[in-house]
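# step 3/5: fold
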Amino acid sequence: MRSILLALVLAVATATASHAADDPVLAEAADLLGTVTFLNSGAPGMVLAVVRGDRALVRGYGETEKGNKHTPDGASLLRLNSITKVFTTEMLVSLVAERKLALTDPLQRFAADAKVPVFGTRAITLLDLATHSAALPREIGDIPEGVNSRAWPTREDRWKWLLGYTLPWEPGTIAAYSNPGFDLLADAIETAGGQSYPDLLRLHVTAPLGMTDTGFAPTPEQCARLMIGSGLGGAASCIDTHATDGSGGLYSTGNDMVRWLRHNLADTNGVLALSQAVYRPRQSIPVAIGFDEALPMAGLGLGWVMVAAQGAQPMLVVKSGGGAGFMSYIAFAPGRNVGVFIAVNRVDFPMFSGVTDTANKLITSLVTR
């Protein structure tokens, strides 16, 4: 027991040594819980970001790579994985607001000469894609040997696959988690916006928010700050991940995710309300596959998973991600001005429940009304 307590003390000292000016409320809420979560994760390193109103805290734990003795911080580059999807849906509603597309538009409208499969007369819509209800699979196949997991499938690969795919059920009914669905959605956004998807995301989201480290093509300087992943599947090289820009390719940092959390919590223009609304209540879905890794899903927004209030815990809007050496989670309480982002550089799905539990508990401890 004494050795465990000593380890906790040392971990806290390492994580907080340079944060004497932090908001004391956030520090008190986050430090011990964050340290215990990191130690239980078995990951080489962890980044935790907490936002409460106009205050924020970013903590780094452990090492950016196992054995290098370099503690991560708010500038350490990491992989968002499937949190990328809720950036995609923010781009989607931005173009809806500009009347360049509509949620009810069929994917076929943006497919040029390619033929999108239908189920009877029911076509796949952008809303179906954004709510994982387009009758598409989780993946289109196994990643080719030696290929970076975030650099495949390319646009050409997925559209060629789609031409030969038969929808197993009617779109808009069953919800089943799909990565290719969000990459096809990004392709449609690119066509509607008239620019490359990375350029559109930079123009509408990351540049206005000052998120200079969030993108798909990191510079050599940014790659030098990338935490090195571990666990199932191992680390992925630091390369351009535009191929999966709709589903999982984004790189970011704890500092940038603080900016994005504040943006989602404030939302003064109302556009984000379109992505955070519930489009598929759980009770209306015959089957829902792949949405309960954090807490039971109560409904699906555009990319976001909605979690109902339980006891002291408020209603939460959440998204998780995993792969390429990282696991990540973002959650916030709408109307309560509290949100949390947490990422570890280790892929271990049983471990991940402890990570999501920490984020949810932190939010609950900081929300009392």
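# step 4/5: annotate
The domain at 78-366 is CATH 3.40.710.10 (Beta-lactamase).
# step 5/5: archive (pending)
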